[in-house]
Amino acid sequence: MTTLDPAHLTLAPKVLLHDHLDGGLRPATVLELAHEVGYDGLPVDDAAGLGRWFREAADSGSLERYLETFTHTVAVMQTVDALERVARECVEDLADDNVVYAEVRYAPEQHLEAGLTLDEVVEAVLRGFADGERIAADRGKTIIVRCLVTAMRHAARSREIAELAVRYRDRGVVGFDIAGAEAGHPPTRHLDAFEYMRANCAPFTIHAGEAFGLPSIHEAIGFCGTDRLGHGVRVFDDIELPDGVDLAAHSFTGAKLGLIANIVRDKRIPLELCPSSNVQTGAVTSLAEHPFNVLARLRFRVTVNTDNRLMGDTTMSKEFGLLADQFGYGWADFERFTVNAMKSAFIHFDERLAVIDDVIKPGYAVLLGSG
Ligand SMILES: O=c1[nH]cnc2c1ncn2[C@H]1C[C@H](O)[C@@H](CO)O1
Ligand SMILES: [Zn+2]
């Protein structure tokens, strides 16, 4: 069996469902764009130092302070050229990490400061993704990137953004999301947007159960009817484990699930777990305390995600590496998480199946030493 060293982790095919476009810029690109557009608010003026600054500033243990770092990335993403470039580089970086399918999200309403319309923002990003896919293909990497449009939960444009998602659904936008500070902004504030999505048979995910606990997950499922949970990590609050159990154990017999935990598992609601980000925002106190392994072993539909590659100084390979070190996972585990993610994607069933059968399974067969 091939070992799980960083080079082999990079080779493994990966699927990414939860990655923010404005949380994944290259530090050098932030600097160059700031220079081009005359943004003078950056705290550091060299690429390595700026990368470190984002990581450290986001390491606050508070979602609110974590979110403040986005002021700088959003400030430099206000023109068609900048949006195209950031989207193109995002695809190139994911392809370099052997991500084979990704859904990348951002909030179009945050990119209107220089006069662009919502449609112009979406079209620029979609062009950037398509360019990135072509560049990756020229380098021998096949990657499919689709878009989720996010509404900010403290704002009041969610219905408009849901309409945008539906308007662009045949052109690369595959779903809708809400993000931003969770406490004080429950998902039910945006019920009309979710109802609009459901009425149009269009899928959505909701950031829930990150900074706020079970009530948020309950609302997202019971009232809003979400198809997936962004993070959802606090579903763990509804699971009672026998005293003294090791969170890295292989089985959790005797675990007792409450109503919310059961419904998440019964309905196979995918959890978009983001290990590093969950530690940075204080959703969990440390990776060792992360319920990823408990949820995986209890057969929840867990998926591995980056959330924000810039703020976390992370990649999918790094997240896999952290989980392997913490919980002792091997290739068969990562294949399962990757298939879980692909099954949960917002593209059509036949398209999901093609990636699983033609790309993921053959890729892991090689790593497992049997193909
Ligand atoms: O982990 C997160 N939780 C809530 N909101 C988030 C998270 N990561 C990024 N965001 C916000 C900040 C971005 O500006 C916005 C759209 O991508 O989504
Ligand atoms: Zn997120």
From TrEMBL:
It catalyses: 2'-deoxyadenosine + H2O + H(+) = 2'-deoxyinosine + NH4(+); adenosine + H2O + H(+) = inosine + NH4(+). The active site is at E210. Its EC number is 3.5.4.4. The keyword Cell wall biogenesis/degradation does not apply. Belongs to the metallo-dependent hydrolases superfamily. Adenosine and AMP deaminases family. Adenosine deaminase subfamily. It comes from Gordonia namibiensis NBRC 108229. Keywords: Hydrolase, Metal-binding, Nucleotide metabolism, Zinc. Catalyzes the hydrolytic deamination of adenosine and 2-deoxyadenosine. The record marks H231 as: Important for catalytic activity. It comes from the Bacteria. This is Adenosine deaminase. The keyword Transport does not apply. Zn(2+) binds at H18, H20, H207, D307.
